[in-house]
Input
Amino acid sequence: MKQTPIRPRGLPNKEVAGICGVARLTDKARAAHAGNIGAYKYGVDSEQDTAILSFLGISAETFQETAVRIDNDVRLGAWVLDHCGRSDKEISAFNRKLRSWWKSKIPEDNFSKHRRKLAQQSEERFHSWSNPWWFIFRR
Output
């Protein structure tokens, strides 16, 4: 029976260790071990994985072995935090940097542009009604 390739969690996901990308890395490591990673890349073949693993100071092989051995995301997250030696401040800075990079890669389609434009117009209408001069003439 043919296995369906996985779809890893998103890059901004912080479910494992509170670090962006580790949940995705976990899904890909487990899928690569099981042989159903599909078109996704894991470890040194992936620019994202390389950046995350470099920040963690953990090799792709060690991470994969541990992700397969520890099948619980909470326990795996504790293991990652124990082995990476990063402070909360460093993790927060890394998360901001990774989210910013991820947002820059999102394609700008017409639907998203239109939705943002409508939201901005709605915000402008709200501010025009809440402008203080309006209350003077209201009385």
Remarks:
- The mean pLDDT is 84.
- Residues 1-106 form one domain.
- The longest helix spans residues 110-129.
